[in-house]
Amino acid sequence: MPAEVIALILGMAGITFLTRFLFIAVLGRVRISEKTITLMQFVPIAVLTSLIIPALLAPQGRVDVSFKNEYLMAGIFATAVTCRTKSLVLAIVIGIATILSMRLLIA
Amino acid sequence: MAVAPNFADNLSCCSDQSLVVQNEFYGKTEDDPVTLMVNEHDREQFIAGLKAPLPLALGVISFGMAYGILAVQAGLSFLESTFMSLTVFAGAAQFVATGMLMSGAGALQVLFTAFMINSRHFLMGASLAPFAQNWKLRWKIFLSFLLADETYALAMTRFSKNAPSMYYQLGVGLNLYIIWVFSSMVGSALGPVAGNPRAWGLDFALPATFIVLVVPMLRNWQDVAVSLTAGVLSAIGLVWLPGKWYVTFASVLAVALGCVLVKLCRRK
Predict the structure, then answer these.
(1) Can you give the residue ranges of every domain in chain B?
(2) How far apart are CA B185 and CA A55, in angstroms?
(3) How far apart are the C-alpha atoms of B52 and A105, rounded to whole Å?
(4) B259 neighbourhood in chain A, CB within 8 Å
(5) How many Cβ atoms from other residues are within 10 Å of residue B16's Cβ?
(6) What is the rounded average pLDDT of the residues B85-112?
C-alpha cells in the first residue's frame, strides 16, 4: 500500500474516532435525570431522519422532488412497509424492486 | 432439576446454563459470589446485544458490499479497501470518501467531508455520555470506536426501557463490525466484475436501514414533529449549506425543537 493512501485512511479513522469519542470522554461527569433521557430520545430520530431525507431527495447529488425520482418513491414504499411489518428485508426488497422497475419503465 | 426442560429451549450455550443452575440451586445467600451474578447478567446483555442487529444484517451487508465494490472501482486495492473498513468503520463516510476519490478529490477535501459527515457523532456521543460516565477509559475508547448509527439507535432504544449496559452495546457493536468488514471484503472481491452498485439500487440499503430504525422510535406527536422538522431542515440544508453540514444543522435544530415542545407541554 502506498504511504499516502495509508495516511489518508488513518486520517479518516482518526477523525471518525475523535467525533465518536470526544463527548463520551469529556462529558463523562454529566448527571443523568429523567428529563435528560426523554430529551435524548429525540437525538437518534433527528440524526437518522436528516440522513434519510437527503439520500432520498438527492440520490445523485442533485435535488429531485418528483414522481420520477425512484429513490424517493422507494423510500415512500419502504416507509409504508415498515409501518406495517418492521421488516428490513421487505423494506429493502420492495425499495430496490421499485428502483429497478422504475428505471426499466422510464428507460 | 425442575428447571431443566426450560433450558432445552434456551438458545444460549451450555456453560451459561450451568452458571444459572448454580445460582438457582445455591440461592442468593450471603456467600453467593456477587461477581458470578454480575458476570452472568453481563453475559446475557452481551448475547442480547449480539442478537439485536440481526434483523438489520441485510441492510448492513448490502451497504457494505456496495461500499466494497465502489472502493475498488475508485482505485483502492482489496487490502486498502478492507483496511479502511477495519480502521474507520463508518459506512456513510467511507462511501462518500471513495466516491470523492473516484471524482479526483484531494486528500484534505476527503478528510474534511469525512469530518462533516461524522460530526453527527458529537450529538450521539453527548447523549450517550451520561450512560458512559462510570466506564473505564479503555471501555470508553473501545465502545466509541464501535459507535455506528445502528449501534447507537439500538442502544438508545434498549436503554429507554432497560438498565443501560456496556456489554449490550459491546455485543451490538462487535456484531455490526464483523458484518461490516466481511461484507465490504466480499464487495471488494466482486468489485472488478460487479458493475456500478448504484445501477443495482444497492445504495438504497442505507436509507432503508435508517427508515426501519427510526419508524418504531416515533411513539408520540413530539417524536413525529422532531422527525418532520429534521427532514425539512436537512432538505433545506442540502440546498443551502456547503458539503454535508445539513446533517448536523438539521439534527441540532430538530432536537432543540423537541426540547421546546416537551417544556411547553409540561407547563399546561
Answers:
(1) 14-23+33-217, 218-268
(2) 24
(3) 38
(4) 39, 42
(5) 16
(6) 83
